[in-house]
Design a protein that fits this description.
- It contains ten helices and ten strands.
- The protein has three domains: 84 residues, Winged helix-like DNA-binding domain superfamily/Winged helix DNA-binding domain (Arc Repressor Mutant, subunit A); 90 residues, D-Maltodextrin-Binding Protein, domain 2; 102 residues, D-Maltodextrin-Binding Protein, domain 2, CATH 3.40.190.
- Helix 1 packs across helix 2, helix 1 packs across helix 4 and helix 2 packs across helix 3.
- The strands form three sheets. The chain has a six-stranded mixed β-sheet with strand order 4-3-5-10-6-9. It has a two-stranded antiparallel ribbon with strand order 1-2. The protein has a two-stranded parallel sheet with strand order 7-8.
- The two termini are 56 Å apart.
- Helices cover 41% and strands 23% of the residues.
């Protein structure tokens, strides 16, 4: 038996009329009758009771009508789902992003993806930069937003935006705006810094900012996780330089002011990517002029 035989059986089981059913499935009445007889022979049981006036289902025919209708619906759903996966409209895309864009870029990105591909599932992950690049190369994730420029072969990058770096301080801190920053008062501050051993591009940017003042910062705490840094700032344990995107976190006890220094945000993906879903997401992200 094949799927078309089953579909023809279900049509006859619904209509209980050979001539009408045959017309609906584009067969002659005799051809449909031969198909049903072949199906009955293969199954080893009668599916219909026939006489000159009436056609009715046997108990076996009733059973198969019920079961095959459900199975065919499931199969049709599977076929449609597979087609959508092939078109990149279904499936899962795993995206890594830094904490600094959790309240800004990421919600905007996902909104646009949902508008274009509402059935796509997105899994959001936070990893350290070096782990993100390795995971991308090893197919553990699909797309990575990073502050760092990609250095691995086989990975393509695209700059999404540049944004200011800001000082984040406790609300009672004497710094009120960027004009308050001088070399003399910077040397008196306790700083929460990016982790030195990781040598991230953001770490070097922060160092560059301090070098422009001729200051070596006193690093009392080190962290690569902005939310943790803001928690320390709120307790007066130090001040920090972070991307302006962290301002949207609205941590109680913390305020900020911008500096003229800028940090970049990149999107990274495998150069040889062939997943339709991932390519659709990349298209949706890159199709926006600003974030």
């Amino acid at each position: 038996m094949d799927l078309q035989q089953i579909r023809n059986f279900l049509k006859l089981a619904e209509e209980l009329h050979f001539w009408k059913s045959a017309s609906m499935v584009n067969l002659t009445q005799s051809a449909l009758s031969r198909q049903i007889m072949s199906l009955e022979k293969e199954l080893g049981c009668s599916l219909f009771e026939r006489n000159k006036r009436n056609v009715k289902l046997t108990p076996a025919g009733l059973f198969l009508k019920e079961k095959w209708s459900v199975l065919l619906d499931d199969l049709n759903y599977v076929h449609v789902f597979a087609k959508n996966i092939g078109a990149g409209e279904n499936g899962i895309v795993r995206i890594v992003h830094p904490d600094s864009v959790s309240y800004s870029v990421i919600p905007t990105v996902l909104f646009h993806i949902s508008q274009d591909y509402p059935d796509l599932s997105i899994e959001l992950i936070q990893l350290l930069h070096e782990n993100a690049q390795e995971s991308l190369r090893d197919y553990k994730i699909d797309i990575a937003f990073t502050r760092q420029v990609n250095i691995l072969s086989g990975i393509s990058s695209y700059k999404i935006k540049s944004e200011p770096v800001a000082f984040f301080v406790q609300t009672t801190h004497p710094y009120m705006n960027f004009s308050d920053i001088t070399a003399d008062n910077l040397v008196k501050q306790k700083f929460i810094m990016p982790v030195e051993d990781r040598k991230s591009s953001y770490f070097f940017l922060v160092q560059q900012i301090f070098m422009s003042y001729g200051v070596v910062p006193r690093s009392h705490y080190q962290s690569d996780f902005g939310s943790s840094i803001l928690g320390l700032v709120s307790k007066g344990l130090g001040i920090a330089l972070l991307p302006l995107g962290f301002a949207k976190h609205n941590i109680e006890g913390v305020r900020y002011f911008e500096t003229p220094f800028m940090t970049d945000l990149y999107i990274n993906w495998r150069t040889n990517e062939n997943s339709p879903a991932v390519l659709n997401v990349l298209k949706a992200i890159q199709g926006k002029s600003s974030y």
